[in-house]
Design goal:
globular; 9 strands; 2 domains; about 20% strand; about 40% helix; Rossmann fold; about 325 residues; nine-stranded mixed beta sheet; alpha/beta; single chain
Length: about 325
Amino acid sequence: MSDQLDLQQYSVRTDLALEAREMATAQHGCTIPGVMEQVDEDRGIKVTRIDVETDAGAQILGRVKGHYITIEVPELRNKDTDLQDRVATKFAQEFASFLVKLGIKEMDKVLIVGLGNWNVTPDSLGPLVVENTMVTRHYFELTPDQVNDGYRPVSAVAPGVLGITGIESSEIVQGIVEKIKPDLIIAIDALASKALERVNTTIQIADIGIHPGSGIGNKRKGLTQEILGIPCIAIGVPTVCYASTIVNNAIEMMRTHFQQETNNTKQILGMLDEIPENDRLALVKEVLQPLGHDLIVTPKEIDEFIEDIANIIASGLNAALHKAVDKDNVGAYTH
């Protein structure tokens, strides 16, 4: 039996590069070598672009080298249709620029893969996006002379999950790629966040591919350029948090609140007042473990949230992929 303690199980669980950068900054200081960041904010929509350019930076962040864009909209849960339209437009503009950055041409063939389980609401993001995507490949195959300018061949598939099909999503996608030979894959999946306020209000775009099931800790074969042989862009939205993360965040919020009221927070919180975040999370998980699993939690309004965010992503993709769709007025296509 090894005397080494596996600390990985006690680390803060997040799929967002932005949150990984925040944690790394808190631990290593303001500057992380080989990691570039640019932040823009406009009327409630915050866009953070992170480029991980070196192996050293990737190791500190715990992320693969690549380009990451995070769109944060804290008010997105308020069912504001005007805001949703603006988010879809911003997403379309950012995604179109991302395609240019990766060297994707206007007529390159695209395969959209909606990962996840359509029977489980917080995991149904991918299939819902596929439902609302403008697919055009069959027109190019059957009636190419009738296709107007400004459209590209786009196909889409929701391969299901291993528990339903008995087949790994990556194996299904590999078979499709070999048959139809797309130039680009766009994979959409649900993620996990360490911050409650980012659940259902944040969209991440990355050029590193995706691993189905990663949001809930499942290890699956990935959809990556190394495996599939073509560029693979990942789009993810955090739809869940771990119960241990929520408890840990609640303790930190209590600590912050008490600090505003008194200088002697240690009298109220005891050792929790000084213990580092990872150590506190380890303590929370240790307490929760005898009760069973570390539950995965999603907001009760998830049915509405998931429909809205899927519609935003699908509308933005339709505009970004097809030149004929106005990227500056996506709201005209979202309802």
